Each structure stands twice: as structure tokens, then as C-alpha cells.
Amino acid sequence: MSMSSPTCFHRRAIVVLLCMAMACLGVSNDTKIVTVFNNGESVGGIQVPLTFRDVPTGKHLAEYLSTLLDVEGMYTDETKTSSKAVADRVYTSTGKAVHSFDDIVPNDSLYIVPTGLLFVWPFIEFGHRVALQSTQSPTGKPIILESFNDSPRVFLIHDFFTDKEADRLIERISEIDDDANKLKRSTVGHDDKGTQSSVRTSENAFDSTSPEAISLMKRSFDLLNIGDYQESMADGLQLLRYKQKQAYIPHNDWFELNTTPDFNWEPKAGGTNRYTFVILFATVFLYLSNVTRGGQTVFPLANMPPGVTHATPPTDEEMELFEKGSWEYRMVKQCYSKYACYKLGAINDSSCRLASYPRKTASVLFYHQKGTGSALTVDFVNTRDHPVGLFWSDSHMTDLKPGQKINYNSFGKHTWVRTNPAATRAW
Known about the structure:
Elements: H1 4-25, E1 32-38, E2 46-50, H2 58-65, E3 87-91, E4 109-114, E5 129-132, E6 143-149, E7 154-158, H3 163-175, E8 184-185, E9 187-188, E10 195-196, E11 203-207, H4 211-224, E12 237-241, H5 277-281, E13 282-286, E14 297-303, H6 316-319, H7 327-334, H8 337-340, E15 353-356, E16 363-367, E17 378-381, E18 388-392, E19 395-400, E20 405-408, E21 416-420, E22 423-426
Parallel strand pairs: 1-4, 18-22
Antiparallel strand pairs: 1-2, 3-4, 5-6, 6-7, 7-16, 8-11, 9-10, 11-12, 13-16, 14-15, 17-20, 18-19, 21-22
């Protein structure tokens, strides 16, 4: 016993010394490892060790991280050839602005936002949830933001508003009586008056004054994490009413950059779009009632996430409501998986158009703009193990190699469809 005790002691001492040596060689206790991403991104991040010396202020941290990551922001020259930017804000994975080292949690993700742009929530992965606090929450519960689709960027919102608020907003539709905001046929166009369109048949009113509307708009700013509510950045609360057989064709909720020659319609170049910046930036969409059939919001260029199914397609009898071949008839076909799924070759996989279905107090957030300030564009990704052809009308534009992605600008009047397993066309 007496001879073995010193041996055990020495072994223990060696273990302790080794642990101390490893601590000396590793990262010090005042260092936090984080992964840094560009605004709104979930890929392309870099790991960075940070100490309190790197974060005298949030702006200093943003400027430092901009030296480590390529940052794209507003155009920096009149020729619009350069958009290399420097970030001036940093946010955590929960959307909290970083002001000091204490705001950073080890192994967290940080997002840097360029000067002049707004924070964009990253997608992360399907089903990812973030709990947010809003002083305007009527339930006292956190608002939950759930990732639903990456491109276009769509989130489901939980516990955003109540049945009581929904009922009150419906009542407001009949109360608003001034000519500019009362319920009337929805219009299209870039001026204040707008024009009626045969392919937008809904009615709408605007409410910017009721306590419920103001609270919801403030709540939306909290949700978007873009600072305090500013009336100049919002388009008011638009109350839409769709009766049976009414709809709005697929469209972008902004105007083309060359809509008029005497106005800057491009936010990335310091301009604005659709009267206010926020309408182009994002939409918070609220469902005020339950609907037995129809009423879904469809993103016709995107696919449903795996495992998410559509409602039962309409029967032939239900389809008799619409004139065969009419735009309404085609729209209904677009809105259900039976008509919107493409069977692709021998593997028989399907891609169904992305849709959000109406349920009272359900809410959806979708972005119209990337974290770089650019308008949304169409990405084509070849997930096959063989090349596929990409066509615009009858023009063969390119071939996509397996795994290759290519990006094209697209507009509301363009419809991209898959014509066969080895080709994608648009017209």
C-alpha cells in the first residue's frame, strides 16, 4: 500500500498538468466562438473567435466582421457596378441587436446588416422556430416565427393576433366611410387612384387609425425586427375581402424598375418602390376568418416543403363554378396539388406549388427582397444526377449540370413551368 500510493499520486499529478496544458493551448475563457453570416443568409458563414476587445460597440463589431466576410449592400456608384458594403449592425440568432460583448452567446450565429438596409430573418431550416417578444402582443405570449420556405422566404407566424382582433377588423370594414379608405373594388397600378383589372376581383379597405390596426402594425415592425413603427414605412393595414370565385392572378407586389422615367424605383440604388419601402421589403399576411374551400395564398414558382400536403383538390362539380379555360379556372388548378404536381420521369417524384391555407388568426410573413437589398429572382437548381436543359420560350438558354444552380430575374407576367424531366421552360 505504501509503495503504490506515490505511484497513484504521480499519475494524478500528470493528468492535472496535462489538463492545464490543454487549457493553455486552447481558447481563453474570455473568447466566444461564433458563426457569422451575411444578412438573411443560412449558408456561407465563417467561424470567428471574439473577445470583449472586438465589441466596444455593435457598430465597431459590424465593421470588423465586414473585413472577414464579403458584404453586399446598396450600390456605391452611379453605374451600379459595385455594391461592396460595410455592415453597421449585428444581430444574434434570436434577432437581438448586439451592443456589447455580453449580448453574444458562445457558439451562436451572428448576422451582419449593411448600412441602409433592413434586417432579414434567416431561414435556417424547415420548422426552425424563434420566439419573439412584442409589447403589442395581446396574449402576453411570445410570437413564434417558424421557417416554412427558403426561396421565396416564407415564415408561419404563431400567436400573432387573436380571434377578438380578427372580428374587430372585419367590423371595421363596414365602419370606414372616407372615400380614400372605404371598401371598394381592388385596383392595380402605381398611382394613388389605380385602375380596376379583370384579373383582380377582390375588394379592399384601408385601416390606419383604429387601435387594432395601429397595434398590429407596431407588432409587425417588432416581428420584422426593423425598429420602432414609422407610419412613413408602412402602407396601412389593407383589409381584403374575397367572395366566392374572386381572386388575384400571380403577381409581384412591387413595380418594375422602369415603371416611370422620372422616379427611382430601385431600393438597392437608394430609391423606393410601391410608395413605401416596407411594402417592397416584406408582407405580413393575416387570415381573419375560416374558409371551407379555397382562399389559399399560393407561390406558384415554389414547391411545397417535403411532407407538407395540399388540401383535397376540387371535384369536377366544384370546378363547374368556373368557365373552362378562364383565368379563374386555371388559377384553381394552380392552387391544388392534383393539378400543380409534376411527375418527373421514372423516379416519379413530384413538386407541388407552395401554398398557405386560410385559418382564422393564422399569419404568414414573406419577403419581397433579399438581405442585400436586391429584388427576388428565380433560382433554378438541378437536383438530378444528369444534366437538364433550361429554356425561355423556345430558346435553349443553357444546360444545368448535376447540382448546378443558376439565377434569373423574373416578373409577375412570366410563368416558369417544367415541361419534361430534362427541361425547364418559361414563357
